[in-house]
C-alpha cells in the first residue's frame, strides 16, 4: 500500500486548515498568480484542482471520517480478503440474498465450499485459494448474520 498523502495542512496565514496544494504551489500568499498560470489550460494539471478531485472522490465514497479511520486500522491482508469476499458476493447477487436460507442449507453449503477450498489448497492454486476462501468466509458471515451476531447498524445483505 502506498503512503497516504494528506490533502490538507495548517495555513501559516489563517491558522486554520487549508489545501496543501495551495501552500506547496505558491506559499499561500500568491494564490491569484498561481491560479492564473493554470487558467489557460482550464486548470488541468493544477495541484489545487487535483486536491479538489481527491476530496470529491472521498465524498463519493459515502464514508464518514470515523469509518475511514476505522478502515485504516485494518491489516492490508484483511482488506484484500474482504475485497475478495465482496467480489464473490457481487458475482452471486443474481441468486438473491441469504435471509431466506435455512441454517441447514448454509451449513451444507459451507461443507461444500470447504471441500472446494481444500482442493484449491491441494492444487496450490493461489487464485482459486483466495476465491474459495472468500466463499467459505461469506457463508460463515451469512450464518453469523442469520444468528444476529453481526451488529453493523444496518440490515442484512
Which short descriptors sum up this protein?
mainly alpha; 157 residues; single chain; 7 helices
What is the alpha-carbon Rg in Å? 23 Å
In what range is the share of β-strand residues? under 5%
Helix content: 55-70%
Mean pLDDT: 79
Kindly, what is the distance between the CA atoms of the first and last residues, rounded to a whole number of angstroms? 29 Å
What is the total number of structural domains? 2
Descriptive notes:
The protein has 157 residues and is mostly helical. It folds into two domains: 8-70, no CATH class; 75-146. The protein has seven helices and two strands; from the N terminus they run E-E-H-H-H-H-H-H-H. The chain has helices at 20-26, 31-39, 47-61, 65-72, 76-91, 103-123, 126-146, and strands at 8-10, 17-19. Strand 1 (8-10) and strand 2 form a beta hairpin. Helix 6 (103-123) runs antiparallel to helix 7 (126-146). The longest helix has 21 residues, at 103-123. The radius of gyration is 23 Å and the shape is elongated. It starts with 7 loop residues before the first strand and ends in an 11-residue tail after the last helix. The mean pLDDT is 79.
Amino acid at each position: 500500500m502506498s503512503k497516504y498523502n494528506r490533502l490538507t495542512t495548517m495555513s501559516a496565514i489563517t491558522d486554520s486548515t487549508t489545501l496543501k496544494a495551495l501552500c506547496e504551489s505558491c506559499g499561500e500568499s500568491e494564490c491569484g498568480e498561481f491560479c492564473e498560470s493554470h487558467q489557460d489550460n482550464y486548470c488541468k494539471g493544477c495541484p489545487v484542482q487535483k486536491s479538489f478531485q481527491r476530496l470529491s472522490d472521498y465524498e463519493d465514497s459515502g464514508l464518514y471520517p470515523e469509518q475511514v479511520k476505522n478502515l485504516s486500522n485494518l491489516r492490508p491482508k484483511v482488506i484484500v480478503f474482504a475485497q475478495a469476499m465482496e467480489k464473490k458476493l457481487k458475482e452471486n447477487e443474481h441468486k438473491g440474498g441469504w435471509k431466506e436460507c435455512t441454517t441447514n442449507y448454509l451449513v451444507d453449503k459451507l461443507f461444500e465450499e470447504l471441500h472446494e477450498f481444500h482442493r484449491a489448497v491441494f492444487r496450490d492454486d493461489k487464485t482459486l485459494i483466495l476465491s474459495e476462501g472468500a466463499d467459505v468466509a461469506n457463508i460463515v458471515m451469512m450464518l453469523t448474520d442469520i444468528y444476529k451476531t453481526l451488529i453493523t447498524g444496518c440490515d442484512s445483505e
